[in-house]
Amino acid sequence: MDSIEFDAIIRHPRTIIHIDVDCFYAQVEMLRHPELQSKPLGVQQKNIVVTSNYLAREYGIKKCMSVEEALQLCPELALVNGEDLTHYRHYSAKILKILHRFTPLVERLGFDDNFLDVTSIVQKYMNSGNDSELNISINMEDEHPVGKVFGPSEEECPCGCHSRLIIASKIAAEIREQIYKDLHITCSAGIGHNKLLAKLVGLLHKPNQQTLIFPCSAAMLLSTIESVSKIPGVGQKTTQLLMSNNIKTVDDLRKTPLEALEKKIGIDLARKLKDNAEGIDETVVKPTGKRQSIGLEDGFKSVSLIAEVESRLGALLRRLTELAMEDGRIPVAMRLTVRKHDFNKSASGKRETRQCALPKHLLPSSKSGIYDHAKMLALAMKLFHRTVDVSKPFHLTLLGVAFTKFEERSSGKNSITSFLRKQVAVQSVLDISSEEGVSDINLGSPMSVNQDSNDGSAMSTTSSPISKPIGTNNQTVDDDVLNEIEPLPKKTRLEVWLSGRRESPSNEMADLRLSPSSPMQLSPKIDAAVLKSLPIDIQREVTRSWPTTSKPKSNNILKYFIANK
DNA sequence: ATGGGTCCT
DNA sequence: AGGACCC
């Protein structure tokens, strides 16, 4: 076959479904309060109605409207406090599980926004007429799409995407049906050949509906967008930048030469937006793995007393440690966030954060199984004193605390944790010692606390009342709490070694990433012998960590091959 | 704005 | 550590 012909045929190879839960918080609250089902309902956080059900929207209530304004529009509006996200997190996880029945290729944005790459399951349907692994059946005889279609659909694209998208519309309907059957939650869906189109087209018919777009209508859909700010990735700053250059619509974007745009907003963003303006978006669905951070925030009018800071942080930390236990992984770093009141401005000030390592003896040991809250609080207060000068008056409007790095809770002698702990010989082979003064980091007790290397910790792990002052007895442990607030080690030994490899000229990492079918394959220059000397499961753990420590350019097909933990 | 999150610089 | 973005 001619290569030109080949290029002409494979044009829209992917099939993407975007699933957007309708007014998610409001739906959850309607389930929790059935008596509010048929009433206009708003979900309130502080003085804001963050979302509302569709009945309330008929009154003109919009997202993030002030409570006063909302009540003026709809005096009978029922309000439910939605500051605690526990229930939403819960339903979000259930929805994700349902989506995973269809494909592991689910990317989540927030709690209620999901991309699914259904390319391969569509292919399965086309091959077999059904998918025995899924207990769903699709009427392949019907050539009509389910739901709405945006734009004309007379002529079929020669690449065959037409029928793929129609099958995907049936899958989307099945997904929405299963979510409704299991959870009584309604969703809207968009079906397209890329994420941009799937997301945008799904907005056209809501709630509880779905819309399909064929590639030939892509440019048309983008033209219907009134402002560039509706393009995902174009936020406030970029919008302002574009506006100041007289670029307001997608059409303005099209008229602006790429070179001119690059000078205004930067090369990467300019190229992305020029593509997007034509409905082109090659970014892949990146399966969402475990969270990179777990945090809680509390906003308020003003907090000016250290005692109140302490009590609020204590409350946040209690809930945060519960979330960490649910997650199952071991947090390694803590981050404190504050927002200081801004007097000269009407808006609140910017956030400031301070981060530090979480000393291992603050973590739940296998003996107690619980966090030492007094010491956690002492650590958080240390971070607080690093961000706020308490010798002067202060006025805070927000406090937040988060865990920001994790290690797997991997017991068992097959884990990389225990392997690295024992195999000092391997470390010397890897030759990663004394780079940039980080040589001793994480040598003795790199990860899990399950092995409990913390000798003599028994006396301090249990029964340490919250009220106990820090640093009055048990000098060694408390000194640790107070002194181990040095900045996080930049890199673990493994990471240092990996980054050293990455910067070597031939870039073996790329070779590795490009071998999806044989991920263990190495270029001859890499330390194959060393790697092969490791047990097979350790090899996997090591190679799995490579792509994340290197930097694949943001969105490309390599992401399909990068494990996501 | 709220109470979460992501990734990049 | 901050800044942009997402919901």
TrEMBL record:
One GO MF term: DNA-directed DNA polymerase activity
Top-rank lineage group of the source organism: Eukaryota
Keywords of this entry: DNA synthesis
Keyword Kinase: no
Gene3D superfamilies: 3.30.70.270, 3.40.1170.60, 5' to 3' exonuclease, C-terminal subdomain, DNA polymerase, Y-family, little finger domain
Example of a GO biological process term: translesion synthesis
PROSITE patterns (UniProt xref): UMUC (PS50173)
Biased composition (Polar residues): 445-475
UmuC domain sequence ranges: 16-235
Xref: InterPro entries: DNA/RNA_pol_sf (IPR043502), DNA_pol_Y-fam_lit_finger_sf (IPR036775), DNA_pol_Y-fam_little_finger (IPR017961), IMS_HHH_1 (IPR053848), Rev_trsase/Diguanyl_cyclase (IPR043128), UmuC (IPR001126)
Residue numbers spanned by region Disordered: 441-475
Similarity annotation: Belongs to the DNA polymerase type-Y family.
Name of the protein this chain belongs to: UmuC domain-containing protein
Biological source species: Melipona bicolor
